[in-house]
């Protein structure tokens, strides 16, 4: 019914559309500033910084999901797989497709010698939280996410 495979450069337009679908679901469509050119360079250039899987519906070969990941290093735990985005198009949720994709990423973490994997979920995304709890995922509440945008970094360093 579904197939999971490594992502290819020609998959990127469909992946960017899924990313935009996720941003809309997360009530932040204006936050997506990534481009196909950036994704090609960052995923398939001389120093790739991310990898991804695609989830296809077998009867149509249409991409209906993706899992985008990269590696991070924890000084406490060592090499970790970070699941940046995990997306299954809304119409296909609840049919087992997401389980297949998520378990492929779990297997990848072991294949690459990672000590575990990490990701984030919005506190209001109850369907996703229920899904992750099926895997006994630990939900942390004491950490606060922080970020700086390039414009702000430039501004601060110019002072």
TrEMBL record:
Species, as recorded: Cyclobacterium marinum (strain ATCC 25205 / DSM 745 / LMG 13164 / NCIMB 1802)
Family according to the record: Belongs to the acetyltransferase family.
Lineage top rank: taxon: Bacteria
Residue intervals of the N-acetyltransferase domain: 2-155
InterPro entries: Acyl_CoA_acyltransferase (IPR016181), Diverse_Substrate_AcTransf (IPR051016), GNAT_dom (IPR000182)
Transmembrane segments: none
Coiled-coil residue windows: none
Molecular-function GO terms, alphabetical: N-acetyltransferase activity
PROSITE patterns found in the cross-reference section: GNAT
Listed Pfam families: Acetyltransf_1
Protein keywords: Acyltransferase, Transferase
Name the record gives this protein: GCN5-related N-acetyltransferase
